[in-house]
Amino acid sequence: MIAFDRVSKRYATGQTALTNISFELQKGELAFLTGHSGAGKSTLLKLILAMEPISGGRLQINGRDMKSLKARQIPEHRQHIGTVFQDHQLLMDRSVADNIALPLRVSAYGEQEIRRRVRAALDKVGLLSKEKLNPARLSGGEQQRVGIARAIVNRPRIILADEPTGNLDPALSAEIMELFRQFRQIGVCLLIASHDASLIGSLGERVLTLDHGRLVNDSGASSHG
Amino acid sequence: MAKQARNAKYTSLLTNHREDARSSWKRLVAAPVSSLMTVTVIAIALLLPSFLMVLNANLEAVVDSFRQSARITLYLESGVSVESAAEVSNNLLQRDDIVQAEYISQQQALADFSRRSGLDSLLGQFSENPLPAAIVLTPASTNLALVSSLAEELSALPEVDQVQLDADWIRRADALATALTILARGLGAIFLLGVCFIIGNTIKLGVEHRRDEIRVIKLVGGSHSFIARPFLYTGFYLGGLGGITALLLLLALLAAVQGPVAAFAGSDNFQRPGLAALLLLILGGALAGWLSALLASWHHIRQIDP
């Protein structure tokens, strides 16, 4: 689903963000991406979302070479990826349900199907009763769960999360991580950027460690070639 | 199965359009003062050239009456008898390009001249009539080039000494009509460009205002056209409403100037713009709005990075 092959990223300013990154994530696999801030975690996620072009190597997402992706194909590419942000990126001028419906509206689903899927996603994150509320009235943990519901509502093949537990207390963080681990069972591939070492360590999942733009450790490398 | 899925897709696309059309309208109504100001400015910009066009159509009527006043005067050789002059006149009347021929004998010319000039005593000193006989023709065509070539052709007749083409009015009327047309079209183009800038700027502000939303939509895979669609509806509404307002103002103005203009044109039937022209004003406004929204949103949405 995600295949990095000696990928590097240099910005136009000459700054090198990523060097020679190689790893693969299969269907139904979950990995944490960790490293100090500025190690290149966000850049790596941006490459997968086609927010930045790669400078060297080969990157395949959902079997598609990112170098051959044309600008007009980028929206469709992103529709297959669910993204959870640290600052959740919810729109405060509309209800929780309308926020979650956004990826479906973009893909031109019918209203009935949208309502059905939004409720299913809300149910999954345990917020069915908050459907009609404005996200500003929810707690930080609830807002993050709305963000997750929005990421899964389109049944993406890949879920990316950038510091999804960054602002949450340990109990909420553990709850959210547990949620992510459930999605793996339905064949979704998850890549979660986090610097919460204690949380990651306690879960016993595959960990990719970045340092100054290099992949210095891949705990799952042996089992996946 | 695949067909069903495709149909569902079209239906939901239609629903999306309806939803965008509705929400764009709501946004306009939610800010009535600024919407009203924008619409008014657009209306004024559309009004002036359309008003000129209508005035021009009415002046064309005046110009046409000038055109019909064109005359060709054939001064005959002094030896031509009254009989042969009448024959020439009759022959000319047979032609399709001449509607009227009036023979003026030497005596009549003298009588006309003395009556108009009051120089009876002076004319009495001539031993014989110094004025030539003439045939005054009214050409069928009002086209200056055609009338000129007709005059040239007639000057070759053996009985004709000199030809005088009385076409000064045609030249002036033509020049006036051309000037007005250029003015109306030129102003129309300039003001239309102004309309496009006004709407483009409104769309730009709208895009800026919804920057966060556009960023999120881009992140979840919203295509450019999905993002631009509500803005295109906004442009369409603004242009269309501007057109309708311009139309109402135009009709009010025309009702006010109808009397004086008709009096000047010398006719009772004041030329009102036709239904098609009025519809064109609304459609033109809406189309200009949509087009400028298309250009503005294409440019400004592209600049927002997720």
Provide a quick synopsis of the model:
The complex is a heterodimer of chains A (225) and B (306). Chain A has helices at residues 41-48, 74-79, 96-106, 111-124, 140-152, 170-184, 197-203, 221-224, and strands at 2-10, 16-25, 30-34, 56-61, 64-65, 81-84, 158-162, 189-193, 206-211, 214-218. By secondary structure, chain A is α/β, with parallel strands linked by helices.
Topology:
The complex is a heterodimer of chains A (225) and B (306).
Chain A (H helix, E strand, L loop, with lengths): L1 E9 L5 E10 L4 E5 L6 H8 L7 E6 L2 E2 L8 H6 L1 E4 L11 H11 L4 H14 L15 H13 L5 E5 L7 H15 L4 E5 L3 H7 L2 E6 L2 E5 L2 H4 L1
Parallel strand pairs in A: 3-8, 3-9, 6-7, 7-8
Antiparallel strand pairs in A: 1-2, 1-4, 4-5, 9-10
Chain B lengths: L1 H29 L1 H36 L3 E6 L5 H13 L3 E7 L1 H12 L2 H4 L10 E6 L4 H11 L5 E7 L1 H42 L1 H9 L4 H42 L9 H28 L4
Antiparallel strand pairs in B: 1-3, 1-4, 2-3
Helix pairs in contact in B: 1-9, 2-7, 2-9, 7-9, 7-10, 9-10
Percent of residues in β-strands of chain A? 25-35%
Main sheet overview of chain B = 4 strands, antiparallel
Total strands of chain B: 4
Q: Largest interface: which pair?
A: A-B, 26 and 22 residues
- Helix segment tally of chain B: 10
**How widely separated are the two ends of chain A?**
15 Å
* Outline type of chain B: elongated
Q: Name the helicity range of chain B.
A: over 70%
| Share of residues in strands of chain B | 5-15%
- Percent of residues in helices of chain A: 25-40%
Order of helices and strands of chain A: EEEHEEHEHHHEHEHEEH
Strand order of the largest sheet of chain B: 2-3-1-4
* Class by alpha and beta content of chain B: alpha+beta
CATH architectural label of the largest domain in chain A = 3-Layer(aba) Sandwich
Number of structural domains of chain A: 2
Mean pLDDT of chain A: 89
Q: Which fold name fills CATH's third level, the topology of the largest domain in chain A?
A: Rossmann fold
CATH level-four homologous superfamily name of the largest domain in chain A: P-loop containing nucleotide triphosphate hydrolases
Low-confidence stretches of chain A: none
**How many domains of chain B, as an integer?**
2
What would the principal axes of the Cα set say about the shape of chain A?
A: globular
